[in-house]
Amino acid sequence: MSPELVVALALGFGVLAQTLAKALRIPGIVLLLGTGLLLGPEGLGWIQPGVLGRGLYALVSLSVAVILFEGALNLDLKRLRREGRTIRALVTSGAMITWLGGALAARLVLGWSWQLSILFGAMVIVTGPTVIGPLLRTLRVKPSVATVLEAEGVLIDPIGAILAAITLEAVLAPDAGSLAAHVVGLLPRLALGAGAGAAGGALMALVLRHPRLRPEGLESLFVLAGVLVTYALCNALLSESGILAVVAAGVTLANLPTRIPEELREFKGYLTEGFIGLLFVLLAADVGFREMQALGVAGLLTVAALILIVRPLEIFACTLGSSLSWRERAFLAWLAPRGIVAAAIASLGAAALAERGQPGGDELRAMVFMTIAVTVVVLGGLGGLVARLLRVRAPARNAFILLGAEPVGLTLAEELRRGGRSVALVDSNPDHCRAAEEAGWPVVFGNALEERTLARARPEQAIAVVGLTANESVNHLFASEATERFGVPRAYVALERGSRGLPKQMLDRHGLHVLFDGPRDLERWNVRFRHGLASLERFRFEEVEESEENGEAPKRGRADPYLILVVERGGRIEPMRQDFEPKEGDFATIALLDERADEALAVLATLGWMPDDPEEAEDAEESEDEGSPEPAASVPRS
């Protein structure tokens, strides 16, 4: 079997396994491990990793570098600062607790030598962002918990990999002088990796920021090349320093004021998914069934010790004095699945032991893979149940995010809040933000087209976003980003009256609704609200009988005399949209231009919208049974 065929088959079956896992809504790693074992030498024999020779480990190293860089791109330092103390503890003292606890478990339960046990403890320090990320998107836990788990998953991997490499070197050269030298060598690796990675990320950000330097159309390849060069150069200077360098580069690039192209994120996402599928299938195929079976009950007990004893001790020690509740700490203690980095360093470690003629490499690799399988299946599979029992699930989506903190946006926000919705505003104009904050609104200042700005508005809690700027292209990009990247269920975009508008196919493709009952002149309405030239009125909908007299609504002209802000049906208030079909008993809050109120009322009457008279409603209520519900209160006029 040729090496080319092995790689092609592993990639193909890896993609197939991930696709099936998404359809079944189970962690992809479960099917990837099963696929590798089934197709490996002791299964069907379709995939023979041995024919790749040393090339397998070069492929593993470069793939892990890309995977960790992609994970680091999603880390927002502002979010990390909120739980910075806990995160720092987890990746320092927490790593030491896991290292020692894993080593003791292997020594006492499996009866391994101290050298092999310590090496196992170092290899299970990592948790794995490639497993944590998909689980958190499914479980939707509280932001404080999600932030800690995401940051730990990305930051602990390079630290764990470096510690595992140093431990392996010490095991292969066990004299006291050599051991001390390896321990002392940890700091230069960390310093080189962090420094070179930050410099590389800053250089990439500089190139992407300036149009004259940016390689148009080749941004994704430029960043990929930069990541791999940074990784390889650091490793050439100091072994195992490159893995920290790519994480530092990703964090730096993501948090500098640089617009990261959407194509870059998509490219890195696809590349990461492909590498994960390829590596898991190849590495799992390299593990023998007999080695897994030989571990037996002792292996399962070792993993149980990691889950039920070591991890809780680690979380207890690292969260002392934090603002996390005991429920949040308990969930952190539960969810610590291992991923691709643990598999990679275990395979590399087993190969190094075999080359030096040291025993135990195959058993070590099998034990790490058993840890991966059990922690993913058990911890991930029961994660939803545990999150519900501990009540750490994020609140149901109920918020609206409005792009545009001008008067129309503030008025719409007030109406939505009246309906029980929480509202956040996003704007890049400091004056608008200051005025909104003084009015008591939560405001996010920044460019809403940047992912990290939108993330600060907590889109995971939003049921809808509304693009309210006078630039309909910006509204469209904002709404598309929120729905596609953050999974916000609904999105509304304001279109400018008199423009050609966005193509209907484009709106339909992204599932976007046109705000209000059609395109409107938002700038003019902002001026009207700002100068008190418009008033809010409450209307009810009544079916209109078609006749020759009212069959055609009066023309409104360019200066719209009214603006339908929200509609209410069954007590539920939503923004007005162009495709909304009113029914008898619906209500609406409508802004009327004071100087043309009579004209607006006439147009609205032809559409079935009649002023809601509270006194008339009260008289009707008195004539009905005493148990009939009270009508909703009228909206105060502005």
Binned, the helix content reads 55-70%
Number of helices: 27
Q: Report the principal-axis shape.
A: elongated
Content of β-strand: 5-15%
Structural class: alpha/beta
Radius of gyration: 30 Å
Integer average pLDDT: 81
Q: Segments where pLDDT lies below 50 for 5+ residues?
A: 548-554, 616-638
Q: Give the biggest beta sheet.
A: 6 strands, parallel
Q: Would you report the number of β strands?
A: 11
Question: Separation of termini?
Answer: 78 Å
Numbering strands along the chain, what is their spatial order in the largest sheet? 3-2-1-4-5-6
Description:
- The chain contains 27 helices and 11 strands.
- By secondary structure, it is α/β, with parallel strands linked by helices.
- α9 packs antiparallel against α10 (176-184).
- The protein is elongated.
In short:
This protein is α/β, with parallel strands linked by helices. The chain has 27 helices and 11 strands. Helix content is 60%, strand content 9%.
Write a concise keyword list for the protein shown above.
638 residues, alpha/beta, six-stranded parallel beta sheet, five-stranded antiparallel beta sheet, 27 helices, elongated
Secondary-structure topology with pairs:
Layout: H1 3-24, H2 28-39, H3 55-72, H4 77-82, H5 84-91, H6 93-110, H7 114-123, H8 129-139, H9 143-172, H10 176-184, H11 186-209, H12 219-237, H13 242-255, H14 262-285, H15 289-318, H16 326-334, H17 340-355, H18 361-381, H19 383-390, E1 399-403, H20 407-418, E2 422-427, H21 430-438, E3 443-445, H22 451-456, E4 462-467, H23 472-485, E5 490-493, H24 504-510, E6 513-514, H25 522-530, E7 534-541, E8 562-569, E9 572-575, E10 587-593, H26 597-606, E11 609-611, H27 614-622
Parallel strand pairs: 1-2, 1-4, 2-3, 4-5, 5-6
Antiparallel strand pairs: 7-10, 7-11, 8-9, 8-10
Helix pairs in contact: 1-2, 1-14, 2-14, 3-12, 3-13, 3-14, 3-17, 5-6, 5-9, 5-15, 6-7, 6-15, 7-9, 7-18, 8-9, 9-10, 9-16, 9-17, 11-12, 11-13, 12-13, 12-14, 14-17, 15-16, 15-18, 16-19, 17-18
